[in-house]
Amino acid sequence: MTLLDSFLTDGYLRFAADDASLAWACHALPFAAAAARDPAQGHWLRCGGTWFVGVDALPNDARGCLAGGPPLSGAAADFIRNDLGLSLPLHRAQVSVCYPGYPQPSAEESEAAYRFRRNRDAAHVDGLLAEGPEKRRYVREPHAYILGVTLTAQTADAAPLTVWKGSHHIMTAMFAATFAGHAPEAWPDVDVTTPYQEARRQVFETCERHALPSAPGEAVLVHRHLVHGVAPWGEQASGSPDGRMIAYIRPEFPTIGAWLAAP
Questions:
Q1: CA separation for the pair 74, 149 (Å, rounded)
Q2: What number of CA atoms fall less than 13 Å from residue 241's CA on the CB side?
Q3: How do residues 14-48 score in pLDDT, each as one tens digit?
Q4: What DSSP string describes 45-77?
Q5: 164 near 203, Cβ under 8 Å?
Q6: Under CATH, which number does the domain 3-261 receive?
Q7: Where are the domains of the chain?
Q8: Which contiguous run of DSSP H or E holds residue 162?
Q9: C-alpha distances in angstroms, 39 versus 32, 155, 195, 237, 248?
Q10: pTM value?
């Protein structure tokens, strides 16, 4: 099975650290740590101070470069370009940081949402934003892929990324059925909440959950429709003083149509 076959079957790929990805991670780390400490970014601190969400917090350019540093490159970037055929400009990366004790209850999250975070890793598909008092979900950010590059060293139980293997097949079918019958120009206003929740329940019943701990320079490529989350910080876990830090690169397709139709 080729790497592409594996990615399309399982919905994710892991890449060992290589010279290029490790150099990028080492250069990015101080920028990411500064962003997590920046009072202007304080609104991203959630879950009782144990999770820094850090959307668009890394000041990289469209090639992934940070001041004086290299562009994002290595085996994962090569796979995206050569095997997936994607050369989209990169957005500013998300800096996702978990700290000991993640997650804690917080005022911005209901009791049910907290239980889901503790028991189901807050499992989700990226780009579906909850809006209004009833938290109805719409496709607002049609990410082409999610590439996580780990910046810090920690034990395997320090809030690793989790994935539900093969769940993108269920989600892709659900999205296609949900948008069928609607004109493309209306797709941003299609409420996907109920079919999404039903499909996610099916995922929990039929797909294997895998935890994916990682070390500096290692990368995980996640299919845009794959259900994924973050495990709680283990009772015996340990890591960097900066927390468990991963930079997530999530460029967007120009349309929901491309997001639906791509492999």
A1: 11
A2: 3
A3: 999 999 999 999 999 999 999 999 999 999 999 99
A4: EETTTTEE--TT-S---TTS--TT-PPS-SHHH
A5: yes
A6: 2.60.120
A7: 3-261
A8: strand 161-164
A9: 13, 28, 38, 27, 21
A10: 0.97
